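Example record

The entry below shows one chain as it appears in the dataset: sequence first, then C-alpha cells.
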Amino acid sequence: MSQFFSIHPANPQPRLIRNTVEILNGGGLIVYPTDSCYALGCLIGNKEAMERIRRIRQVDAKHHFTLVCRDLSEISTYAKVDNIAYRLLKTRTPGPYTFLLKATHEVPRRLQTPKRNTIGLRVPDHTVTQALLAQLDQPLMSSTLLLPGSELPLTDPAEMRERLEHEVDLIIDGGFCGIEPTTVIDLIDGVPQVLRRGKGEINGLAGY
C-alpha cells in the first residue's frame, strides 16, 4: 500500500520533501504534481520502476519518457544544447514545455528515441516539484498520469489513492494542477517546431 503525503503547494514541508527523496532513492515510484498535470516519477536508473510505469499506463517499450530537470544547467548535462536552443530554453524555463533535444551519453539508451537518439526534457514551474528536484539533485524520469481508457490525466488525489494505492509507493497531494499537457517543442534540427500545443504559450515560435 502506498504512502500519501499532503504537501503545501506554495510552502512545501521540508520533512515531507526529505521523506519523498528517501522513497525515490530506495527505488520507489511516486505520483507528484507539476505545472501542467500530475505525473508518475522515479530515478533515471530505476528499470523496475520504469516497467511499473509502463504497466500502469499500459504502454509499450516505444513509450517516450521525459526527464524532469531542476534548471537549464541540468538540461545541458543530459542534452546537447546549441545557441538557438539555449536562448529559447532560457526564455521558456521554468514553464509547461517539453523540449526534444539530442541526448548526451548521460542518458541511458533505453530512454532515448531509437535512431534519432533524442530525449524529452522539461523544467516545471511548480514549487513542490522544484523543492523535490533541489533535494534530489538529479532529474526525475517521468510520464503523465494518464490511465488506460482515460482521455484526461487524473487530477483528484483521492481518486489517485483509490486507483493506485497498490501500484505506486507514494502519492503526493499538492493541490489541483490541471489537465492540460505541456507544449512540446522539437529543437533537434536547430529550428523550433511545435509538435503539440499545450499549456505553454507558443507566440514567437516557428510558424506562430
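Notes for this example: The helical segments are 14-25, 47-57, 72-78, 83-92, 127-136, 157-164. The longest helix spans residues 14-25.
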